[in-house]
Amino acid sequence: MPADSVVGIPADLSLAMVEEKEAELAKRRQEIRRMQGNVASPLGPEPNFPPQFLCIKPLVYHNIKEQVPVPSQRFMYTLAFMYFALIAIIIYNISIALLSFVFGGSGMHFGLSFVYLVGIPGAFVVWYYNVYSSVVSEANSRRWLGYVGLALGVIFDIWMAVGVSGLGGCGWIMALGEKNFLVFILAIISASLWTAHCLMLLLLGIKYFRMASSAKPEAGAPADTAP
Hints:
Layout: H1 3-6, H2 15-37, H3 64-67, H4 70-102, H5 107-113, H6 119-137, H7 140-162, H8 172-176, H9 181-214
Helix pairs in contact: 4-5, 4-6, 4-9, 6-7, 7-9
């Protein structure tokens, strides 16, 4: 008996047949890789927020018009405006602290004003995205996180509106204790903006509570599906 038949190799095996088999296996491997690359696509759309900038990459998918039910869209657009307004007020707060420092104010106050930049990603994570997710998914866990997040957002606004001198917030106490007239006027504007933001966020929180209460799933509804 020939040795090649003993080991199970056909006698008529040629190099061309081996190369053909190799090409077929390579084609199958490429197809498997392509299918594995497409596995994640049915699970959800690609992240688009925050917008890509330098080392910052999108982390979540955010589309009010597409994901939020029509009755809640106006509320979410208003809440989104409040989030971007917060970003602008934080930057304005730093500008006033800098101007105060230039005119002889506290260096510590100016330095600590940068700490509140944490409020930009913090507000998104703590209150905005939790409310957004709860409106989209109607998940109880997200709803309660939204309640807590909005309460923390209001507390943050109150702290900034008070504006204790030397702690970075350009609010009422800092403004009323300012000796430079220009800084005084700009700080009064800052304190007013923080106060207005606080009141608006409080009103939106009340509206959110009413919306969420009226939209609670009935008994036997599916369990939470928070994104």
